[in-house]
Structures are given as C-alpha cells and as structure tokens.
UniProtKB/TrEMBL annotation:
Gene Ontology biological process terms in this record: L-serine biosynthetic process
Annotated organism of origin: Rubus argutus
Keyword Magnesium belongs to the record: yes
Family from the record: Belongs to the HAD-like hydrolase superfamily. SerB family.
Family matches, as InterPro entries: HAD-like_SerB, HAD-like_sf, HAD_sf
Protein EC: 3.1.3.3
Record's protein name: phosphoserine phosphatase
Sorted UniProt keywords: Amino-acid biosynthesis, Hydrolase, Magnesium, Metal-binding, Serine biosynthesis
Needed cofactors: Mg(2+)
Gene Ontology CC terms, in alphabetical order: chloroplast
Length: 308
C-alpha cells in the first residue's frame, strides 16, 4: 500500500504485461523501471529475457540498494521472530499484488491521470489517510457495475512467490492476515486465491446506493483512517492473544504497525501492534520506509528460504 511519503524517494519496479485471465505474472516479457535519485544520472533499462519474474524485476534495484541500506541481512533476533511468529499480516497493494488497487480502478473508470496527479500532490506533504482516500474516490465515484466490470476484466496480478510463502507459513502453523487500506470488493478474490478466509481480511468497504451508485466508503472500518492499520493489528493480537506478530508491507501505513516506530512517524496515533516489520520492496522501494524496517527484502524467496 502506498505511504504518503516524499515521492522523489520512491523507486518503482513494474511488469508491463497484464494477464487477462490468470492471476499470476508470467515468467517472461518482464520490464522494470529503475528511477535514480536527484544526485545521479537518470536512466532506464529494459530486459526482455526469459528470466524468472523475481530475478527480472528486482535484481538491479537490489544490487544498487545494498550500499544504501544496512538492514538487508537479518539479525539472529529478527530471524528468530520471523520463524516463530504466531501470525503474519500482509499489506495488499504493491506487496501481495503488483498494483495499487485504487489507481488501477481509477484508470479503468477513465480518471487515472486525475487520481495520479492528486496522489502526487498528497505524497508531497502530510495528508491524513482518510482525506486522501475520500479525495481520490470523489474524482471518479465508481459505481457498483464499474467495480464488477473491473474485477471481471482486470483480475489481480499476484506478486511472484507470495502464494508459496503463504502456503509455507500456514504449513508451519502461522496464521495469515491481509490488512489493507484498499477495498474488500477487490481484495476478496486475492484472499480466495491464497486460501485466506474472509474473517482474516481487514480492509475498507465501498458503499453503494439502491441503484448501484457510489455513495462513499465505510468510515467505521479502522483501515479507513491514519493509524487504522495499527488499530486493526492490535485488535487481531488481542482477540487471539498472539505472542509474536509480523507485518510485511511497502509503505508508511505499514510501518505504523511497528511498535518501535509507530508513535514517532504518526504522533497522536496509538502504538503499533507488530513485533517485527519487514519492508517488501519488490514492487515499490520507498526509501524512508525501507530505512526504518527491521528487515528489507526484494523478493519473497528470501522469506521462504529463511523458513527452511
């Protein structure tokens, strides 16, 4: 899920192939974009070799990032927490899935540019999540029929390795949750693919009138506001008495899960509920978030192999 952080410090890693009927990204025809920072030359590279989707999409960024981040090799304490976690909470947009759901839906409805421009302005300053969410939705007011049409024509693109990782965690007795600022209508099919029950999904809900017209979103959902993800995780932890809980995501709203960083990043919000925050930068590398993570990874294979 995107964090509202300075957009000049974000590196995007995108695959350009949109799969029509399958939920997984193919092992060929992969493109990545490498955005360099202000003090470097700007460049773009294209790879069209038959490589694995992980290798093709993240290796260059991972290599260039190793000198900037000191948290790419986990400590023994971090590994122990990861291996012994009772529960793992995943962000969805730009983590479990390759796309940002609201931006994709807006593009489908013909308002992609307007929403992207508003998002860019929002990311340059401190904007409450609920304000950003309401502003974006107001730009295109998606109807129920549009959402249904979108889900039919543009199925979610699942990140390479996520299905295997979820399967491995569940086999180890770890409970898996999806906690997202996205929408239940769009996350439900993803949860189904991964075998995650509906009661383990915490996300926002689009609201529609009797004729299917858009009327807003459910503001009672904790994930609909700043600090809401941490609140959701606290509820999960309290309800099940989990001793060790891990959060995996890419953005500032995911970092707020962390007990250590929550209050410093979001003054006035409740403290986070996760013992460990793993920043997944396989789709979006947000430098401000990555620097504060307990562990920075660029592909899910790292996490899978560490559970062996």
């Amino acid at each position: 899920m995107e964090g509202l952080v300075n957009s000049s410090r974000i590196t995007s890693i995108r695959t350009h192939f949109r799969q029509k009927k399958l939920a997984f990204v193919p092992t060929s025809t992969v493109q990545f974009t490498k955005s360099l920072y202000r003090n470097r030359n700007v460049g773009m590279e294209h790879h069209h070799k038959s490589l694995s989707p992980i290798a093709a999409s993240i290796q260059p960024v991972e290599a260039s990032s190793s000198s900037r981040f000191g948290n790419m090799l986990p400590s023994k304490e971090v590994l122990d927490l990861w291996r012994n976690a009772d529960a793992v909470c995943f962000d969805v947009d730009s983590t479990v899935c390759l796309d940002e759901g609201i931006d994709e839906l807006a593009e489908f409805c013909g308002a992609g540019k307007a929403v992207a421009e508003w998002t860019s302005r929002a990311m340059s300053g401190s904007v409450p999540f609920e304000e950003a969410l309401a502003a974006r939705l107001s730009l295109f007011n998606p109807s129920l029929s549009q959402v249904q049409d979108y889900l039919e024509k543009r199925p979610a693109r699942i990140s390479p390795g996520i299905a295997e990782l979820v399967k491995k965690l569940k086999a180890n007795g770890t409970t898996v949750y999806l906690v997202s600022g996205g929408f239940r209508q769009m996350i439900k099919p993803v949860a189904s693919i991964l075998g995650i029950p509906p009661e383990n999904v915490f996300a926002n809900q689009l609201l529609f009138g009797s004729n299917g017209e858009f009327v807003g979103f459910d503001e009672n959902e904790p994930t609909s506001r700043s600090g809401g993800k941490a609140t959701a995780v606290q509820r999960i932890r309290k309800a099940h008495n989990y001793k060790e809980l891990v959060m995996i995501g890419d953005g500032a709203t995911d970092l707020e899960f962390s007990i250590q960083y929550s209050f410093s990043l979001f003054p006035g919000t409740s403290t986070g509920g996760a013992d460990l925050f793993i920043c997944y930068a396989g789709v979006q590398l947000r430098e401000a978030v990555a620097a504060k993570a307990d562990w920075l990874v660029f592909n899910f294979e790292e996490l899978i192999s560490s559970l062996e």
